[in-house]
Amino acid sequence: MPHSCSEAALGLLTCMEETECVKSGKDIMECLKDPVESDDCRAQRNAYTMCKHSQLNMRTRIRGVRTY
Question: HSE (CB half, 13 Å, CA atoms) of 29?
C-alpha cells in the first residue's frame, strides 16, 4: 500500500515543478503552502489528498475506492 499513491504524488510534483513559484527558486513545500501559487495544481493536490485519505479510511480499505 505505500506505493498506491505514487502516481498521484508524481502528478502533483510534475505540476508544481511547472509553476512560476518553483521556477523562481522557491522550495516546493513553500509553494504548496501558498494558496495562490498552488491554485494551478488544485486538481492534482485534491487527487493526492483523497488517495492518502482513502488509505486511512477503513471503509474505503474494505470496500475499495468509490467510482462515480
Answer: 0
Please give the torsion angle defined by the CA atoms of residues 24, 39, 67 and 3, in that order, rounded to the nearest 10 degrees: 30
Q: Which helix (H) or strand (E) holds 64?
A: none
For residue range 6-62, list pLDDT tens digits in order: 898 999 999 999 988 889 999 988 888 887 766 778 899 999 998 888 888 887 777
C-beta neighbour count of 23 within 10 angstroms: 10
Q: 3-state DSSP helix/strand/coil percent for the chain, to nearest 5?
A: 70, 0, 30
0.85 surpassed by pTM: no
